[in-house]
Amino acid sequence: MRLRTRLTLWYAAVFFAAGAVVITAVYLVVSDRIQNNLITLRLEGAETSVDLSTIPDIPGREAVLQDLLDRQAAYNDAALDQVLLWSVAALVVVGVLAVVSGWLIAGRALRPIDAITSTARRVADRSLHERINLEGPNDELKRLADTFDEMLARLDGAFEGQRRFVGNASHELKTPLAINRTLLEVAAANPAADQRLRTLTENLLAVNDRHERLIDGLLTLARTEHAALDRSPVDLSDIVIHVADRLRSEAERTDVVLRLDTGIAVARGDAILLERLVENLIANGIRHNHEGGDVWVVTSACEGRAVVTVANTGPVVAAYQVDALFEPFRRGEGRDRVDSAQGVGLGLSIVDSIARVHGAEVKALPRRGGGLRVSVEFTP
């Protein structure tokens, strides 16, 4: 239930409770005053508010007086009933007006909170540069909005520093590795190099390549954690076909068959990041497999939601191990466990990070007989 509705109900409950107390008090006071003013009749010469001398001494005089008192009592009861009826009616009418007024007042009081919520949502979806800048008196809500703006400013500065660090690290870390790779390739191509040197060069190139992919994966994780996305329609089937063509040679080398079922599946997001997501899923299915295995890639649309699913054969994965596979530097069983050059344990972590910034949901289940089934479902 919304806070505005709860505030209105609380206000209405307090109003009706207070109104019931007032009606009860008025009813009791009026009833007491009427009872005190009733005509009392006591026979045998007792003092009364009625002058008995004005009533002729006729047979049945006491009956006449008693009838007068009964009529007076009935009139008083009817008057009390009318007072109660009209009081309740007035309470209902005024109560309805109070509920409507309470709804409007609660809406106006909560409007700054709605502004804070809307700004927070836009900041989460886009960037940290936007501020609330709430105008009004220096009350609790104004101080809350100002505190939120200060927090956004500090976060913006922190993330800007992180982005600068990522940019600098991208250059400072990748450039020496690129130089090493070039030197090793030149050494391997030297006709005078013997077999031992060539073998050593190939091993060093494999290690250098793994370090490059490790750095590239870490930088991708850092970029996607707080990426400001330019969301545009992207057909996941096109990405799958493109990525599968690029990875098919790797699959053929390891005797793994890629099987595609590409239906139209349009998602809104960054095409480069979505391509990286699909590439990591397919590469993970190829590398964590066995010879003669299969990788199934399916794209589809379900109720307006684009879905890409990658399933593979391979070693058996226990259900309790699935969540841990999405943590950085955690790898499943397969060739990666013995051949570290095949992967660095960041593939599914990057998939999860890219999915989060796109508001997508990642589901992973172990397949019966071995392997894993990972699906990513995008919101419309």
Protein model, in words:
With 380 residues, the protein is of the alpha+beta class. It folds into 3 domains: 123 residues; 85 residues, Helix Hairpins, CATH 1.10.287; 149 residues, Histidine kinase-like ATPase, C-terminal domain (Heat Shock Protein 90, 2-Layer Sandwich). 60% of the residues lie in helices and 11% in strands. The protein contains 8 helices and 7 strands; from the N terminus they run ααααβαββαββααββ. The protein has a 5-stranded mixed β-sheet, covered by helices on one side. A two-stranded antiparallel ribbon has the order 1-3. Strand 6 and strand 7 form a beta hairpin. It is elongated. About 6% of the residues have low confidence.
Write the layout of secondary structure elements.
Layout: H1 3-36, H2 61-125, H3 140-188, H4 195-225, E1 232-235, H5 236-253, E2 257-262, E3 266-269, H6 271-287, E4 294-302, E5 305-312, H7 335-338, H8 347-357, E6 361-366, E7 372-377
Parallel strand pairs: 2-4
Antiparallel strand pairs: 1-3, 4-5, 5-7, 6-7
Helix pairs in contact: 1-2, 3-4, 4-8, 5-6, 6-8
Task: State the CATH class of the largest domain.
Answer: Alpha Beta
Count every beta strand, where a strand is a DSSP E run of 2 or more residues.
7
Q: Quickly give the structural class.
A: alpha+beta
The number of domains: 3
| Form type | elongated
Provide the CATH superfamily of the largest domain: Histidine kinase-like ATPase, C-terminal domain
CATH topology of the largest domain, anyone? Answer: Heat Shock Protein 90
Q: Helical percent range?
A: 55-70%
How much strand content do the residues show? 5-15%
Measured on Cα atoms, how large is the radius of gyration?
41 Å
Catalogue the unreliable spans.
Answer: 39-49, 333-342
Order of helices and strands: HHHHEHEEHEEHHEE
Strand order of the largest sheet: 2-4-5-7-6
